[in-house]
Specification:
With about 350 residues, the chain is an all-alpha fold. Helices cover about 80% and strands about 0% of the residues.
């Protein structure tokens, strides 16, 4: 039997781990400009929103900061000063989490939009990718929000029950058996969260490529991951480790490059403040550039692999390969086309 055609980054047949890794790196190499452009817009807007919130929060509680953080040793700040600072910090935290989720959803929507052309070997530009990602962004955001709400809700419920139980205990210190139970329950939440994250990991691809709504995308992901959870988990764990290592080694030259570039200014004998500020700016800018590139790689590569695993599951279970070959304009191998792409 002839090998399956390969018009794009993967052969149009059941994929091996090597196909998935190679396809993810090939798709990133071919379409990094489009993906980086979307990520830059998404995280740039998020950074501006969080920075603006921090500035507003600091301005709102400016008069309370000094009484809270500059009290003499052994003197506790009064509640009237602590409460506004705590509320402002909580608001900043909520805005940061929300904007991070929004930015991540936009990037997650852009990855399947890129794969739609990368699998077929088609070239694309930033405009079509942005329009496709933006049109499906609400569905991807909804799917991610449901996942995060479920996991965070379970964690908050656990913490609330723990605090209520401890505070209502007649003992000054909670019994060791109670602490052991809570530790076991907390440790059990970790594998449950991982299981849920893998089970619903195909939801962004289903939301973009099949125009599914958030709940339907989650259900679609659960059906595709069924009986393939360990294979999906192992593949994504390997890709995550590889992308994390790449991101780490990308970050190193920017971090140490900034230190070495700023060192002559920082160690100058001149007492002027200007060189010191310039040194700090150089280090901060280079560190920020390295962080942006590192985060882009560690976020995008696992999602590209997830999208290819989604394609692989549809090829194996729904015979999607002939439909892909038909869309790519190459001779199919095997049965006639099924499904849509």
């Amino acid at each position: 039997m002839p090998p399956p055609p390969k018009p794009g980054v993967i052969p149009l047949g059941p994929l091996t781990l090597g196909d998935i890794l190679g396809g993810a790196f090939s798709a990133l190499g071919r379409h990094w400009k489009q993906l980086f452009g979307v990520a830059l817009v998404a995280y740039g807007i998020a950074a501006l929103a969080v920075g603006g919130t921090v500035a507003i929060a600091v301005a709102a509680v400016h008069d309370h900061l000094d009484p809270v953080f500059n009290q003499p040793h052994g003197v506790d700040p009064v509640r009237a000063d602590v409460q506004p600072v705590v509320i402002a910090g909580f608001v900043v935290f909520l805005v940061a989490i929300t904007m991070w989720l929004v930015a991540m959803a936009l990037v997650y929507a852009a990855v399947p939009a890129v794969l739609q052309d990368a699998v077929l070997g088609r070239r694309t530009t930033f405009g079509p990718v942005w329009r496709k990602a933006w049109s499906r962004f609400p569905a991807v955001l909804g799917a991610l929000a449901i996942q995060w709400a479920a996991m965070i809700g379970a964690l908050l419920l656990f913490v609330t029950l723990m605090l209520v139980t401890i505070l209502s205990s007649s003992h000054h210190e909670p019994p060791p058996a109670l602490i052991a139970v809570f530790v076991v329950v907390f440790l059990a939440l970790v594998p449950v969260s991982i299981w849920l994250w893998i089970r619903f990991g195909f939801a962004p691809a289903a939301a973009v490529l099949e125009n599914q709504r958030p709940v339907e995308a989650l259900r679609r992901s659960a059906r595709l991951v069924k009986d393939a959870w360990w294979r999906t988990f192992g593949s994504l764990l390997l890709v995550g480790m590889i992308s994390g290592m790449i991101g780490y080694f990308v970050q190193i030259p920017f971090t140490y490059g900034g230190i070495f570039a700023a060192m002559p200014l920082a160690l100058s004998s001149d007492d002027a403040v200007g060189p010191k500020i310039t040194a700090i700016v150089i280090m901060a800018v280079l560190y920020l550039i390295g962080t942006v590139i590192s985060q882009f790689l560690s976020t995008t590569l696992p999602q590209l692999a997830t999208g290819l695993l989604y394609v692989d599951q549809r090829i194996r279970r729904e015979n999607l390969a002939p439909a892909l070959a038909d869309a790519a304009g190459v001779p199919p191998v095997g049965a006639p086309p099924m499904g849509t792409w």
